[in-house]
Amino acid sequence: MLCLGIESTAHTFSCAVIEKKGTNGKILSDVRKIYKPSEGEGIHPREASRHHAENSPQVLSECLEKACVKISDLDMVSYAAGPGLGPCLRIGAVVARSLASYYNIPIYPVNHALGHIELGKMLTGARDPLVLLVSGGHTMILAFLGKKWRVFGETLDITLGQLLDQIGRHAGFASPCGSKIEELASRSSKYEPLPYVVKGNDVSFSGLFSATKRIMPKGLESACFSLQETAFSMMGEAVERALSFTGKKEFLIVGGVAANKRLSEILQSICKRHNCKFFVSPKEYAGDCGSQISWVGLLESSKKAGAKLENTFVRQSWRIDSVEILY
Ligand code: AMP
Ligand code: MG
Q: Whose CA is nearest to atom 12 of ligand 1?
């Protein structure tokens, strides 16, 4: 089975082709174009969607060329139907719908968060992990139980990715800023006290965001170091409690923030204490990409038919814990 997956939930427009044989998937191509707001600014949904619309023909043809397939070779197409920014989601849906109707191939609307998790499992070999999904749009601790991914903790306000990006933008960098914050943090070991907010098994980052802005004039490197230490320790506490509660013997980090080495270091040491196998999504596939969407489409196609065209809409606030998993 050959599936074209289309991702367009936020800053990234990406197309990827995966070939599935039995239970194995092989990524044949994954092409991305990322919308970059100007320095100090966040994603402007209308501008991002314009970026996606303008770049979609080139990304699609480059993706097919790299995979050495023609559109007529495709068995199906899948697209990220949510959650995400409405104007951006609609571009991916329109491209997928056009291909499906013109070439008469099945179409699968896919949950974006599920894409992060399933591709992470496929690439690392994790089978039944407790998952930490940390990205621009999500901060969630999840485990699979009774046909659904259940949430064992999440952010009560902004996501971990937003926290890092907003601090970076406040310092005048261009978004996304996670890797810049990581680099600055690695040059300091001076901890400035910051608010640490874990409520039950949920985390809250808005107070940490305001307090970090206040200490930035004292030194950017120490502010980034203190921010990372505080935010990642909060995540560590919530993950450790979820590990104890669920008793999972595998742990997987997915989402763009999974690229951060210090976050992995903290969580790896927690896993060691719990005799739990640690997995992290490969950096190249940690952030948003078409492969995530293609792979979930392929998994779903083993258990259900494609959607009717009139049901291929987008859902901006489509929570992963409302999706019933059939495969
Ligand atoms: P996604 O929404 O999954 O594409 O992830 C994007 C988020 O990942 C953005 O908020 C980035 O700032 C963040 N990110 C990317 N690389 C790193 C890194 N090395 N450390 C922390 N955050 C990162
Ligand atoms: Mg994402």
A: 178
- Examine the pLDDT at 39 and tell me if it is beyond 90: no
Number of domains in the chain: 2
CB 197 within 8 A of CB 207: yes
Cβ atoms 209, 203 nearer than 8 A: no
From the CA of 136, give the closest atom in ligand 1. 2
Residue 190: the pLDDT is 98
Same domain, 101 and 140: no
Cis check for the bond before 37: say yes or no (omega within 30 of 0): no
Cα of 258 vs centre of ligand 1, distance in Å, is 7
CB 221 within 8 A of CB 184: yes
Residue 271 and residue 293 in one domain: no
Instruction: Provide, for the chain, the percentages of residues in helix, strand and coil under a 3-state DSSP scheme, each rounded to the nearest 5.
Output: 45, 20, 30
If we measure between CA atoms, which residue out of 137, 158, 161, 164 comes closest to residue 224?
164
Question: Ligand 1 pocket, 255 CB below 6 A?
Answer: yes
Say yes or no: 293 and 280 in one domain. Answer: no
Report the CATH number at residue 187: 3.30.420.40
Name the residue range of residue 230's domain.
127-285
Do 105 and 219 have their domain in common?
Answer: no
Q: Does ligand 1 come within 6 angstroms of the Cβ of 153? A: no
Q: What is the pTM of this model?
A: 0.97
Please report whether residue 122 resides in a domain.
no
112 with 132, same domain? no
The dihedrals phi and psi of 174, each to the nearest 5 degrees, come to -85, 140
- Say whether both 210 and 271 belong to one domain: yes
- Binding site membership of 182 for ligand 1 (Cβ less than 6 Å): yes
pLDDT > 90? residue 49? yes
